[in-house]
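quick one, two chains, predict together pls
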Amino acid sequence: MAKFNLKEILELEKYYRISLLNKISGLKSANLIGTRNENGISNLAIFNSVTHIGANPPFLGIIVRPLLVERQTYSNIKTGKYFTINQVTEQIHKQAHQSSAKYENNVSEFEECGLKEENIDDFPAPFVKESPIKIGLSYKEEHLITANNTILVIGKIEQIMLPDKALKQDGDIELDSLNAIAVGGLDSYYSCNRIGRYEYARPGKEFKKID
Amino acid sequence: MAKFNLKEILELEKYYRISLLNKISGLKSANLIGTRNENGISNLAIFNSVTHIGANPPFLGIIVRPLLVERQTYSNIKTGKYFTINQVTEQIHKQAHQSSAKYENNVSEFEECGLKEENIDDFPAPFVKESPIKIGLSYKEEHLITANNTILVIGKIEQIMLPDKALKQDGDIELDSLNAIAVGGLDSYYSCNRIGRYEYARPGKEFKKID
């Protein structure tokens, strides 16, 4: 059993610590965030921190790292007020990983990563054509986490698109049928197979498998 | 293609909307949070919102739903100042799902769900014996998300334990070797297989697969 206390964690070699700490909380979602800067140039970046905030009204949150260097996604959300969240699949996971490279802000990561920009209706931010689940959001609020100057950005969902085949009659989304993937930290990609979907759990009662 | 705008989302049947919105952002981590109330009774609850906040110093965040009803985990973190985050595996995913049931605060969910409480060193909050990755945290700060009164709680990592076999020489954690699972929304559990781990991506360069 490997065991680290806070002092030992702080003394770890930098990249060892980054890898360990980014993976310690388990598998995460993999999404591409699409934005546009004030010159209209599109930006695309992979995020593993998209978090459910609420369903009614519908909100999602993302964590942005400290603004010590330019954060294009954050800066574009603040100026443009809109962004998109697009599911990463097994088919596009390498292109998605490439979007984590630090590009200058006068090139579009869509082109550089080999993904297609899709503009839908009049939505101001670009979607990823290859992503089966596409979410359009507007900027709602943000919170500066004083512990380390990361920022929680909350977006309000303005529209959702997904394939009919993955959406069940009760609102369930079969993420495996879309080849949605999970990530470990910043560099490891995992395909997923459904073990089971279960009823709502109640004290003292055995819950049934739904499918 | 199914398409919903904000107005249509708000008009959906309640449980359809909850299922759709909880799954729309893809796969999430599955962790059990262990706490203790002021009478010393342990509490255990499954969370899919554990988020990496920082590595140096090490912080994790969780989202707590609005305090319209009693939130035992939140209330215990606020009074006790310590909590644990424990990885859910395929082997204990049904026990973890059972922990989502609403128990009274005079019973321990460990016993009710069939999981073993483990007290390690002098850490004030209980760990889950069956979890391969165990994290002990102290309360750091919180942020009220005014959009819908959910709360982001930040914890500082005080200690980490995980099996040697899953921890590589560079700090990588092989989550699949631990049978770590991912969840879709509140009711669907997924096993995961590693597709690949890749080098840091750089503009205009092809990255290599590490393993």
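The longest helix of chain A spans residues 14-23.
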